[in-house]
C-alpha cells in the first residue's frame, strides 16, 4: 500500500468527492455557460459560473477556484481584462486559466496559453482539464 491517501477514480469516471476541484466558468452566453457547468458537474467538478468578468472577480475573491475556464468576449470586464487583473494580484496570479473562445479571437491569446475553440467537445475538454489539474 502506498503512502498516498488520495482516492482513486476511473480514467473516464467522475472525480470522487474528496478530490473535487472547482472550475470557475466565465461565459456570457447562457446556453454555453449552462452546458459547460452541466458537463463539469456531471464529471464531478464543482462549477460555479459568472456571466462576466466583474461577477467572476466577485466569486474569485470569495474563494479562488482551482482553474478558470474563460471566454474572452465578455460584457463589463472582458476576459483579457480579467486575466490582466489576476496577473497583477500576487494572491491570484497563479490560478490556471484555460481560454474558451471563438476561432477569430484565439490568435490574441498569450502564446502557450491553453485555448479551446468553440464549439466545444465536452469529453475532450473534461479530459484535458483533468490532465491540466493533475
What structural class results from the helix and strand content?
alpha/beta
* H/I helix tally: 5
Q: β content, as a range?
A: 5-15%
CATH topology of the domain at 19-76 and 90-105 and 116-133: Rossmann fold
Q: Shape from CA axes?
A: globular
Q: How would a textbook summarize the main sheet?
A: 5 strands, parallel
Span of the ends, CA to CA: 21 Å
The CATH superfamily title of the domain at 19-76 and 90-105 and 116-133: Response regulator
Helix share, percent: 25-40%
Radius of gyration based on Cα positions: 15 Å
Total number of strands: 5
Summarize the structure.
The chain has 134 residues and is an alpha/beta fold. It has helices spanning 30-42, 53-62, 79-88, 103-106, 122-133, and strands at residues 23-26, 49-50, 67-70, 97-101, 115-117.
Amino acid at each position: 500500500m502506498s503512502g498516498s491517501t488520495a482516492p482513486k477514480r476511473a480514467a473516464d469516471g467522475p472525480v470522487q468527492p474528496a478530490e473535487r476541484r472547482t472550475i470557475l466558468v466565465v461565459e456570457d452566453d447562457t446556453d454555453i455557460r449552462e452546458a459547460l457547468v452541466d458537463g463539469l458537474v456531471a464529471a464531478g467538478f464543482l462549477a460555479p459560473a459568472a456571466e462576466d468578468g466583474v461577477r467572476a472577480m466577485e466569486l474569485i475573491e470569495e474563494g479562488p477556484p482551482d482553474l478558470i475556464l474563460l471566454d474572452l468576449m465578455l460584457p463589463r470586464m472582458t476576459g483579457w481584462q480579467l486575466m490582466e487583473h489576476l496577473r497583477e494580484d500576487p494572491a491570484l496570479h497563479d490560478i490556471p486559466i484555460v481560454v474558451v473562445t471563438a476561432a477569430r479571437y484565439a490568435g490574441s491569446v498569450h502564446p502557450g496559453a491553453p485555448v479551446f475553440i468553440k464549439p466545444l467537445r465536452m469529453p475532450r475538454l473534461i479530459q484535458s482539464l483533468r490532465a491540466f489539474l493533475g
